[in-house]
Write a structure and sequence with these properties.
By secondary structure, the chain is of the alpha+beta class. It has three domains: about 20-215, Histidine kinase-like ATPase, C-terminal domain (Heat Shock Protein 90); about 225-385, Ribosomal Protein S5, domain 2 (2-Layer Sandwich), CATH 3.30.230; about 395-530 and about 595-630, Rossmann fold (3-Layer(aba) Sandwich). Helices cover about 40% and strands about 20% of the residues. The strands form five sheets. Strands 1, 2, 3, 4, 5, 6, 7, 8 and 9 form a nine-stranded mixed beta sheet that branches. α14 packs across α20, α17 (about 500-515) crosses α21 and α21 (about 600-610) packs across α22 (about 615-625). The longest helix is centred in the middle third of the chain and has 34 residues, at about 365-400. It binds 3-[3-(1H-pyrrolo[2,3-b]pyridin-5-yl)phenyl]propanoic acid. 3-[3-(1H-pyrrolo[2,3-b]pyridin-5-yl)phenyl]propanoic acid (0RA) binds near residues 46, 47, 78, 120 and 165.
């Protein structure tokens, strides 16, 4: 074949290569540093493909002087026979036809690196020059190219006992903005490839400096050693990484994982040696399997009922370090950076194989499953606690909102020092108080039913108690750590309940709440207890009110010559609005007790006695319920 005939056959090839040179970004992502390194990966991936097909053991990557790259392997060597369709050597087809790669017949490779699988022809098109040497069938073949175009057909050049391919190229300065390779970038990827392809021997040499640098990456343990490498300096929950490897049909799955004592997750996923940083179906399948397997073991070990936890995916990944590598025939890469695996069948496949293999592994290693469950159960509990705290914070916010409860009859006075709010036991007494009050400075908030005992309830329940919610929003100053006295809407908070045991109980419950959650109200002397009269004494046509037994006795003594009748008030409800005002709410005549905590420790102790579980001390205390209030004359 003459040189002329040869070139005429290559018009199609030239068009293809021209397209690559016109839009390099479409093929290698960029013409910057990443694109430059991509060239090396593309060639190396071809050698790794040979290794995955079982024909190659060694790869040597050299950065030579002038940033010329050489990639040598001991695979089968690129075929050199004349291709029936293109009528040139297969070698030339591989090196010049787009997407020819190793896949011009599908049986050649079981699997092939997908992302970089644009083909070595792209590297050729973007190189100032490229030389390829093939060692095959005892012979050496050579061909060289300039910017992708063959200088001449491939030709035999000596004899050999070796098999393999050597590709040497100089990236084109017309294409790339940067021509200087980074040792670290290449070594990172080559090491990764060595981990992902157990047993492969990758040498990396840098000849650019005065001193030659060389590294060897070889991991008989594969991704198991990848994990050990990552966890070398960490505290591990179990000595050895868990390793599983399964192959079925044309899919290979390898998983290595180990838990460490941190709370973050480090999972690297790969498909056909491509780091799928955007995840995809293999990752989803793996995570589903993990959650399922751990929850199954929780059931088997009867921990689910005992501990009352259901593990969520995120729990099972705290402290997890994992490498998942799948190899499949026809990978579909999706996503922003084409690093998300899309093949839908891979999800179920991964899920099933990982579930089976981990179930078997954990059944044989009970100590390891127990150590892991111990950690992830704590993660679940922490998650639950955090959720409750968040809910609580949200509900607290709702309580601190500006809207006032509808049941509140507010006063008109704006000066807080002059205002007061009556917390009134029961709707009917509340109604009477609303009628009898001086609406300029007195607000009324009726409370229905029993007030929650805060001593026995958690904060989350407290803020969902209706009566307490009403109080919190009416007072406007929040509770607990977010309490703000500046926001208090009334200078005096007056508890008004019946003078019987029930009323006493409500007073105590409210005081407990103020003491625990609005303590500054008590310390600042804002809390009062209204004292309705206990007795009405009629002496002829006149009425007298006694607030204590002693008072009653004194009145009876003073008028002992006259006819008198004594009646005892059973509740606030017995009084009409006018009477309630006169006896209990009118600052001129009423009696109130101011609640003080001069001795906070004593008070705290008393609240505990009062509200805790011990019944007897509580009863005694309630019977003498005015111990902690001091008579106050306004
Ligand atoms: C096409 C077909 C075969 C191997 C290769 C290409 C091949 C390409 C590269 C690139 C770098 N190293 C390589 N090694 C092999 C299959 C060969 C056969 O069937 O014998």
């Amino acid at each position: 074949m003459s040189e002329k005939q040869y070139s005429s056959k290559n018009i199609q090839v030239l068009e293809g290569l021209a397209a690559v040179r016109k839009r390099p970004g479409m093929y290698i992502g960029s013409t910057g540093l990443a694109g430059l390194h991509h060239l090396v990966y593309e060639v190396v991936d071809n050698s790794i493909d040979e290794a995955m097909a079982g024909f190659c053991k060694n790869v040597i990557v050299t950065i030579q002087k002038d940033n010329i790259i050489k990639v040598e392997d001991d695979g089968r060597g690129i075929p050199v026979d004349i291709h029936p369709k293109f009528k040139v050597s297969a070698l030339e087809v591989v090196m010049t036809k787009l997407h020819a790669g190793g896949k011009f017949d599908n049986e050649t490779y079981k699997i092939s690196g997908g992302l970089h699988g644009v083909g070595v022809s792209v590297v050729n098109a973007l190189s100032e020059w490229l030389n390829v040497t093939v060692f095959r069938d005892k012979k050496i073949y050579k061909q060289s190219y300039t910017r992708g175009v063959p200088n001449a057909p491939a030709k035999e050049d000596g004899k050999t006992d070796k098999n393999g391919t050597t590709v040497e190229f100089k990236p084109d300065f017309e294409i790339f903005e940067i021509l200087e390779f980074k040792f670290e970038t290449l070594s990172h990827r080559l090491r990764e490839l060595a981990f992902l392809n157990r047993g492969i021997h990758i040498s990396f040499i840098d000849e650019r400096g005065t001193e030659k640098i060389s590294d060897v990456y070889y991991y008989e343990g594969g991704i198991e050693m990848f994990i050990s490498h990552m966890n070398a300096k960490k505290k591990m929950l179990h000595d050895k990484p868990i390793y599983i490897s399964k192959a079925e049909d044309r899919i290979d799955i390898e998983l290595a994982m180990q838990y460490v004592d941190t709370y973050t997750e480090t999972t690297y996923t790969y498909c056909n040696n491509i780091n799928t940083t955007e995840g995809g179906t293999h990752l989803v399948g793996f995570r589903t399997a993990l959650t399922r397997v751990y929850n199954d073991f929780m059931k088997k070990l009867e921990l689910d009922k005992k501990l009352k936890v259901t593990l969520m995916g995120e729990d099972t990944r705290e402290g997890l370090v994992a490498v998942l590598s799948v190899k499949i025939p026809d990978p579909q890469f999706e996503g922003q950076t084409k690093t998300k695996l899309g093949n839908t069948d891979v999800k179920q496949f991964t899920e099933r194989l990982v579930t089976e293999a981990l179930t078997e592994y954990f059944s044989q290693n009970p100590k390891i499953i127990k150590a892991i469950l111990d950690k992830i159960v704590r993660a679940a509990q922490a998650r639950e606690a955090a959720r409750k705290a968040r809910d609580l914070a949200r509900r607290k916010n709702a309580l601190e909102s500006d809207s006032l409860p509808g049941k509140l009859a507010d006063c008109s006075e704006q000066n807080v020092d002059k205002t007061e709010i009556y917390l009134v036991e029961g709707d009917s007494a509340g109604g009477t108080a609303k009628e009898g009050r001086d609406r300029t400075f007195q607000a009324i908030l009726p409370l229905r039913g029993k007030v929650l005992n805060v001593e026995k309830a958690k904060l989350e329940k407290i803020v969902s108690s209706d009566a307490l919610k009403l109080i919190i929003s009416a007072l406007g100053c929040g509770i607990g750590t977010s309490f703000d006295i500046e926001k208090l809407r009334y200078g005096r908070v007056i508890i008004m309940a019946d003078a019987d045991v029930d009323g006493s109980h409500i007073r105590t419950l409210l005081l407990t709440f103020f003491f625990r959650y609005m303590r500054p109200l008590i310390d600042g002397g804002h809390i009062f207890i209204a004292a309705p009269p206990l007795y009405q004494i009629r002496i002829e046509k006149k009425k007298y009110y006694a607030y204590t037994d002693a008072e009653r006795d004194k009145i009876l003594e003073d008028y002992k010559d006259k006819k008198s009748t004594v009646s005892r008030y059973k509740g606030l409800g017995e009084m009409d609005a006018e009477l309630l005002w006169d006896t209990t709410m009118d600052p001129e005549h009423r009696i109130m007790y101011q609640v003080l905590t001069e001795d906070a420790e004593l008070a705290e102790n008393m609240f505990t006695i009062l509200m805790g579980d011990e019944v007897e001390p509580r009863r005694q205390f309630i019977e003498q319920n005015s111990m902690y209030v001091k008579n106050l004359d306004i």
